[in-house]
Each structure stands twice: as C-alpha cells, then as structure tokens.
Amino acid sequence: CFRMGGFPALLFLLTLPGSCMAGEDMQVFLHTEGESFRANCSHDVHKNLHEKKFWCKELSEKSCLVLALNSPLKERINLNHALHRSVDLIDLGRGWFSVIMTALRRENSGTYQCGVRGDLKNILLQRIQMVVSLEEPVRLFAKKRNSLSLHCSYSVSQIRKLQHFIWCKMVSRIRCQPIIRGNSDQSIVKVGRTEMMNDFSWKMIRVWLKKLRLNDSGEYHLESQGRNKLLNRIVLEVLATYYWLSGWAYT
Description:
The protein is mostly beta strands. The chain contains 1 helix and 22 strands. Strands 1, 2, 3, 5, 6, 7, 10, 11, 13, 16, 17 and 18 form a 12-stranded mixed β-sheet that branches. Strands 12-20-19-14-15 form a 5-stranded mixed β-sheet, with no helix packed on it. Strand 10 and strand 11 (about 120-130) form a beta hairpin.
C-alpha cells in the first residue's frame, strides 16, 4: 500500500459545519492500553463506491484531524505519522469499510468520525467515542431520547467463554440492581430498553441503551457472573441538550 509521511498533521483537517450527519446516536468503545480497536462504517455503496473514505479525530466543534483516507481497491493513505500511531482504513467496495487502530494509548481517547469525502460536502456516517484508560469509573454523556451503544473489550485471560454477564445499576453504595443478564453464546438478550450480547469473536460485551431518559443517569456496572468480577464502572449522565466540552463531543 502507498503511505504518505512528512506532512504536518494539521494540514489534514475537515471542517464540520455544512457536513451531512447520518445519525445522532453515539457508539462508545471502552479499551485498556495496548489493545486494538476495530470498527465498521456502513455507507450507500451505489452512491459512494468511488468516493474517498476518511477516519478523523475531533479537535474542536468545527474541525476534525484526518488520520486515514482511502479509495476503494486503490491506494491506502495513512496520515497519522506525526502522531506515531498505527491506523489503517480498509475499503473493499462492499458497502462498508473497516478502521483498525493498534497499540492503543490513553491519548487515543477522544471522539472520532468515519465518513465519505465528497466534492461538495462530507457525509459523516458515524461518530465514535473511544475511552482508553485503566481509571474507573468512565464518565459518559448522552442526549435525552438518543440511544447509546457501549462496546466493552475484554481478554480471554480475564473471562472464560461460557461465563454469563450482568449489566446493573447502582441503587445504593453497596447494591447494584441487575437490569439484564447476557447469555454465554452470541445471541442478543432484550429487557425493556436495554439489550446485551457477548460478541466473543470480537472479544466485546455490547450493551445498547435505547431511547434514553433523564432518570437513566447514574452509575452502572458490567460484571461477569460466577466470579462476581467487575469489568467496567460507567457513570452516565443523560442531558436534555447537546454541547461540546474540553475536546469531547457528546450527543
């Protein structure tokens, strides 16, 4: 593949105003240092087959630093040498493209966008918030009536394949009220506005919180049943309005 290097990183910026946003819901990936991140971004293959695809990290409310740019089945351009991080964007022309980041570090935390780069406007397909940290709890913000998708990574050494998982909400200092229990297989379990699955092939526990309400705010735990092992602590605040703060974009 063709690599580009030696260019100042700030030359490759996208201006956000005037772009077309495909959706409002936020994907949140929780990782620890050293792990790899992978996500797929879907698009209209009939309209965007020959358009360039991009992956960028938001620097402010109005700009996004492009880390990778790609044309399907053609050269792959990696623009992140100034950041000394490994980013790869792969588009096989099938209606979706993959983004892979390896050897994650805490400074990789932030809000990212994947999209299609057109002549007149940039089509933003998805906004993804990544948290790379060993610190607990992770604090997240979301907008009322939107949905929030959490993707919590784990290693095989942490958890046996056949263990079950519990998503619960703290109702006192010592009690976490179970909301949903996930199956050991990869089926999706649904309880009310919450869904969960153990995506073992990607080593991810995926939790979907649908149609958020203000009273959904609070501290949540993801635990493995049997060993009562705490995997993630998440403090969620559901907001009535949108705002952008300190380098993080919240929905």
